[in-house]
Amino acid sequence: MTTNKTTRHAHQLSRRDFIVAAGASVLTAAQAQSSEGSKSKNSIVVRVDAGPVDRLNELVSFPVDPKARFSNWQAGTSRLALSRLNERGEVVSDVPCQFEPETRQLSWQTGHLRKGESAQYGICCSSEAPAQSKRYRIEQKPAHLMISVDDALFARYNFLGVWKPYFWPVNGSAGSVVRGAGGGDHPHHTGLYLAYGGHGEGGSANIWSDWDEPPYGPCGKMLHQRFVRLTEGPVYAEFVEEIIYVKGNGDKILDEKRVSRIWFADNGARFLDLSFETTKPLDVGKKPFMLVARLAPSMNIPKEGHVENSEGKIGRQEVQRKRAKWVDCAGKVGKGINGICLFDHPQNPEYPGMWGEVAVAPQMTVVHHSPDKLPQDRFHLKFRVCIHDGNAKDAQMDARYQSYASPMKVTSC
After folding, report:
1. How far does Cα 54 stand from its chain's mean position?
2. Is the CB of residue 256 less than 8 Å from the CB of residue 242?
3. What is the pLDDT of residues 27-53, one digit of tens each?
4. Most exposed of 69, 248, 272, 401 (fewest Cβ within 10 Å)?
């Protein structure tokens, strides 16, 4: 396991430092265009285009190979820095950024951009010593990860001693939007998690219930193997995990690689981006995969609270067993109103997915099935979870979904 410790302020350069690092003069867009392959010895100029969607402080990434891009790059001591440029190519402000060496991606947030607008940034390298960051942090305990932002707990990821890994709590500004373990009402429906097999539809293994006995058991398990990477930094936190699925008799079903990224925008919006890649399930039946949120009891859904989907349907019964791009559930949490919205990615099979409760009403589930024929024998699923203040309209869920479904383009100038 490797742990990347990035910094909150180390990514920032003063205007003077950026100019010096760029070669004692600020690159203009015209100069960048004339350089070979939009590349200079010590700087890169890139443009972010909002496209046809309003952007609400979106997270973007740009591929960078520092060794190839920067003549003064020194592995282990150099770092990347980012600055916002005006139309003349002059430095306007320093921008927090985060570089992941394993994927060679530089990430940052764009602020608000209206549709059709663009923004220009300069990337350079520096050998200044980084300072310790405390914005996005992951603390590994024996059986769970503690994920904090600005020194406050956002979520706990439980991965050992459980039938399937799950997030609980997942905190909005007023408290957790999902419930923990226990209780007489389906105690195995816990937090936010990925399940497999349902109640054994068509003979599929059941990694939905947590029982050793019939009628639904003996159930299978998702077993944590290791964390490939834990990443902390000023822009996001991320962990990469390897998991195996087994049937109730111990037979292996598949291998999974799971990537979970946490980042905050503004106006109370908190994001959890989830990516799942599995081998072909060695199983029979319908092979359903289900992203599940067991809602906080205080929301009192369906009697109270607010449930809405991307198609304009409002109310628990109206969204039940309907296909949609997203579904939002909001209600009383602590002393405020918080909500959780699940986004379905356009690349998922059977998109848009089928939504609804399974077994209990205070829950939301989206289902996708693994097809029999898979490219390279790999099955992929992507979701975004947004934790927010107020209801779906208050939190501009439709605009945030459009930004997820149509990512911004980041190109060299």
Report:
1. 20
2. yes
3. 333 333 333 334 446 789 999 999 999
4. 248
Note the residue count of the chain: 413
| DSSP at 335 | T
> What single letter denotes the amino acid at residue 356?
G
Which amino acid is it at 126?
Answer: S
Instruction: Name all domains of the chain by residue range, CATH numbers in brackets.
Output: 2-126 (2.60.40), 136-404 (2.70.98)
Start-to-end C-alpha separation, the chain: 37
The C-alpha atoms of residue 318 and residue 313 are separated, in whole angstroms, by 6
- Compute the distance between CA of residue 242 and CA of residue 224 in angstroms, rounded to an integer: 6
Q: How confident is the model at residue 181 (pLDDT cuts 50, 70, 90)?
A: confident
Lookup: tokens for 411: 């190109």
Locus of tokens 């997942």: 170
pLDDT digits (tens, 9 = 90+) for 265-277: 998 999 999 999 9
Full strand arrangement of the beta sheet holding 91-95: 91-95, 79-85, 118-126, 43-49, 409-412
Nearest to 316 by CA among 354, 362, 358: 362
pLDDT band for position 2 (50/70/90)?
very low
What is the share, in percent, of the chain residues with pLDDT greater than 90?
76
Spatial CB neighbours of 28, under 8 Å, sequence gap ≥ 6 = 88, 89
Does residue 197 contact residue 208 with C-beta atoms inside 8 Å?
A: yes
Cβ-in-10-Å burial (0-12, 13-18, 19+) of 246 comes to middle
Q: Which one-letter amino acid corresponds to residue 321? A: R
Q: Residue 149 and residue 38: Cα distance in Å, rounded?
A: 36
Residue 307 has which token pair?
């449930």
Retrieve residue 167's tokens. Answer: 């997030």
* Measured distance CA(172)–CA(256) in Å, rounded: 28
